[in-house]
Automatic annotation (TrEMBL):
This is ABC-type quaternary amine transporter. Signal peptide: none annotated. InterPro entries: AAA+_ATPase (IPR003593), ABC_SmlMolc_Importer (IPR050093), ABC_transporter-like_ATP-bd (IPR003439), Mo/tungstate-bd_C_term_dom (IPR008995), P-loop_NTPase (IPR027417), Transp-assoc_OB_typ2 (IPR013611). GO terms for cellular component: ATP-binding cassette (ABC) transporter complex. It is an enzyme of class 7 (translocase). It comes from the Bacteria. Keywords: ATP-binding, Cell inner membrane, Cell membrane, Membrane, Nucleotide-binding, Translocase, Transport. It comes from Blautia argi. Its EC number is 7.6.2.9. GO terms for molecular function: ABC-type quaternary ammonium compound transporting activity; ATP binding; ATP hydrolysis activity. Residues 4-235 form the ABC transporter domain. SUPFAM superfamilies: MOP-like, P-loop containing nucleoside triphosphate hydrolases.
Amino acid sequence: MAFLSVKNIVKRFDTQTALNGVSIDIEKGELVSILGPSGCGKTTLLRIIAGLEREDSGVVMIDGKDCTGLPPSKRNFGIVFQSYALFPHMTVEQNILFGLNEQKHLSREERKERCKEVLNMVDLYAHRKKYPSQLSGGQQQRTALARAISLKPAFLLLDEPLSALDAKVRVKLRSEICRIQRKLGITTIMVTHDQEEALTMADKIIVMNQAVVEQVGTPREIYETPKTAFVANFIGTMNLYRREEKVYGIRPETIQVSKIFTRQEQECWKGIVEDMEFRGALTRVYGRLEDTKEEICADIDSARVSSMNLHEMDEVYFQVPKGGMIAYPASGC
Ligand SMILES: Nc1ncnc2c1ncn2[C@@H]1O[C@H](COP(=O)(O)OP(=O)(O)OP(=O)(O)O)[C@@H](O)[C@H]1O
C-alpha cells in the first residue's frame, strides 16, 4: 500500500469538472510533481489531499488510513504556496516560531533550537531579524519553506513554489528544495505547470490534462516514452504529424539534416530550411517539408551546422532513424 493513495476523486464546481476520477499513489520519501496546463485541476487535487477542499466522491488514504473528511490540521502537511503568505509584521524568525509555538510538547529551548536548525538549512540564519519586506523573493520563499519544514510534517505540499521568482533564483531554489527534501526524506508533492521544473526535480511526474491523469512515470519515461500525443506535445518539443487514424511524434533531437539524399532504414523527407536558432552546442533548424508543406524542427550539433555550411533557404533532407517515430491514436490530440 502506498504512503499516500488517492482513489477515484471527482470534484465539480457548478458545471465545471475540476477532477474526473483521479487516482494516484505516492511512496514514502518521494518527490512527486503534478504537472499540467492551467486549469487542468492540479491545485484542486493538492487542496483535496491537504483537506482544504472537499471532494464530491473518492477516497484519500494516508499511510493506510482513510482520511477523507479529516480537517487539514489532522493530516500532518506542511504547505508552501506560490505567494509566500508570510506575516509582514513579523521577522523571519518570528514567522517560523509562530507555528512552532503551537507545538506545546516542545520546550521554549527546543523550539528556538528547531528554528535555528531550519534557518541554517535554508541559509537564512544571518537574515533572521529581517522583515519580509526586507527580503528578496527567493529569501521569502525560503522562509516559507523553513516555516513548513520546522513542524516536521509527514508531507510537504508545494503549490507552484517557484513561479513568482525570476529565472536565476528559480534554478537555485530548485536544487535547494531537492537537497532539503532528500536530506529530510520528506514525502513531497509539488504542483507546477513548468515542465523543466518537474523534469529536473521530481522522482515521479503525474501529468494531468482536463481533469484527468494522462500519465505517471519517471521524468525519463515521461520524456522518452510519452503515452499520449498530449504528453508528447506538452513535455519538451515534439514534431507531430497526423496520418489517417494515427498521430506520429518525433523529437527534434532524433532528426538529422543532410544536404545529400540517403536512403537507409529511415524516413528521409525533402524540405527547405526556413529559420535557424543558435542555442549554444545545438542549433534548432526550422524547416518545411516539400510534399506535405508541414513544419519540422530539428536540433543539430552547431559544429555540424557549420561544417555542412547550412543556411536558410537551403534544400535539405530531414532524416528520421528507425524507431524515432512514436505513434498515438489521433483521438488523443
Ligand atoms: N473555487 C472554485 N470555484 C469555481 N471553479 C473553480 C474553483 N477552483 C477551481 N475551479 C475550476 O476548476 C478547474 C481546475 O482548477 P485548478 O485551480 O485546480 O487548476 P490548475 O491546474 O491548478 O490551474 P493553474 O495552473 O492555472 O493554477 C478550473 O477550470 C477552475 O476554473
